[in-house]
Amino acid sequence: MSASRAKEEPLYLVRNSPIHGRGLYARKFIEKDTWIVQYVGEKVDKDESDRRANALLESSKDTGGAKVYMFILNDEWDIDGDVDWNDARLANHSCDPNVEAQTWEEKEIWFVALRDIQPGEELTFNYGFDLEHWEEHPCQCGTKRCIGYIAAEEYWPTLKRKIAGKKAAKTRKRKMASSATALAQAGE
């Protein structure tokens, strides 16, 4: 599968993205179920993957940015895609993605078209984050389906409740502040 794909001209271009930084864009029409680009990098065991990801997250406290390109390959290995020759690392998140990551024989990770993709369309996938640090990952995809944060769709019902709770708490706080101001003004 990958040997034949490597000989062909890439189906995508890399250019600036309104979602975030740079992104991948369809060079030409891409038919549904087409294998577009392989996610490549260093194969690392789970302990090393955790160590690298945690080190990046720790350094982000000083730098303000953490780009973790770890991708789960199987139960034993991950792919650290933080290498210049891994264009797939530039695919941005979307709440309404047009590609998904698929593992081939637990050896390779490929982005595959979920639907027909038009020339010039940005190639996006759902990063599939859990809700552990959801507030640290606002979404900028701008689609009609955007939930506002980067999270796997399976978590959306819970995320919607968390967002509603956060908004309700802000509203209560604002009302309490207004009431306190009104009481203070009445006592003058």
From TrEMBL:
GO cellular-component term (any): chromosome
Post-SET domain ranges (all copies): 135-151
Annotated Pfam families: SET
Classification via InterPro entries: Post-SET_dom (IPR003616), SET2_Histone-Lys_MeTrsfase (IPR050777), SET_dom (IPR001214), SET_dom_sf (IPR046341)
Coiled coil: none
UniProt GO MF annotations: methyltransferase activity
Family matches, as SMART domains: SET
Protein name, UniProt field: SET domain-containing protein
Organism, scientific name: Roseimicrobium gellanilyticum
